[in-house]
Amino acid sequence: MFATVQLLLAFSSVPLFASAFAPSQAYPAMAPARTPLRFANDGELAEIRESSAPRLQESRREQQRKEWIDQAILYYSKVMREERRRALGQQMQEDPDNYVDLANKHYFALRKIKDGKPAHAEIIYRRIIDDLVAAEADEECGHAKLAVTTLLLALHLQREGYPATKTREVFLSFFRLVLHTDDECACSAKVLQAFALFEMKQGNTLKSLHIVRRAIELDPNLRPVLKWKQFREAEQLLNARKQLRRLK
Questions:
Q1: Residues 208 and 127 in one domain
Q2: Which of 36, 76, 142, 165 has the smallest number of CB atoms closer than 10 Å to its CB?
């Protein structure tokens, strides 16, 4: 009896075979099942394309808009001649939004000219001038923007062969606004120079000489203009008339 009890105790102290291993060893984990690849069908592809189309169109429009603005600013910066006004101490403190708006309008007029729609371009220029006249002047050089648009409109009218009276009125409208209130403005001098050349083409030689002299008073850098052939001849004509008056 005692031997039987000892034998039972001995067997109870020996661990079972399965319990001698860790659970991971006894039951190794199985790799997760891989999801099979699935290709979108035609309907799903069409839905994807349809959902992405508006984003692509918006991206293209934004790119075109950016390119347009870049071209407009490049063009307007050339016609405004900031570097020259800066050298004269007349650089404007320009509002960026207003500058871009003016650049867009002027570039739009240029595109209309190139597209063979000169009448539309004239309307755009005149609207710009009306807006500038209605707006408050800038502190330093309030007429620079108005001068640029005036020059562009006058040049446009001459190229399109409009009557001289119509082009002359563009110049006179500018001077009625600015000449007696901004005598030190170099941008007015550029308009005067253009006006002088216009009158020279109309055969008004002495009037042209008088105008260009006024331009030189406002901007001495324009003095070399007097060496041009047409103005040298105008000087000679004026001197000859003065001598005739003395003889009388």
A1: no
A2: 36
Give the mean model confidence (pLDDT) for residues 158-182. Answer: 87
Distance, CA of 248 to CA of 245 (rounded, Å): 5
Q: Are 172 and 164 in contact (CB under 8 A)?
A: no
Q: What are phi and psi of 180, to 5 degrees?
A: -90, 0
Kindly calculate the radius of gyration of the chain based on its CA atoms and give it in whole angstroms.
42
Selection from 173, 189, 101 nearest residue 141 by Cα: 189
- Do residue 113 and residue 177 come from a single domain? yes
The dihedral through the CA atoms of 64, 66, 68, 71 has a sign that is negative
Sign for the pseudo-dihedral over CA of 56, 60, 61, 63: positive
Of the residues 182, 215, 234, which one is the last residue of a structural domain? 182
**Residue 209, amino acid:** L
The answer on pLDDT for 123 being more than 60 is yes
Residue 166 lies in a domain: yes
Same domain for 190 and 136: no
The Cα–Cα gap between 227 and 22 comes to 108
H-helix or E-strand spanning residue 113: helix 96-114
For the record, the structure tokens of 188 come out as 């007015």
Identity (one letter) of the amino acid at 123?
I
What is the average per-residue pLDDT within 127-144? Answer: 74
Q: Which domain holds residue 209?
A: 183-242
Identity at 97, one-letter amino acid code: D
Whether 19 maps to a domain, the answer reads no
Tokens of 2: 């005692």
Domain co-membership, 192 together with 178:
no
pLDDT band of 50, cuts 50, 70, 90: low
pTM: 0.69
d(CA 211, CA 201): 13
pLDDT tens per residue, range 193-204 = 999 999 999 999
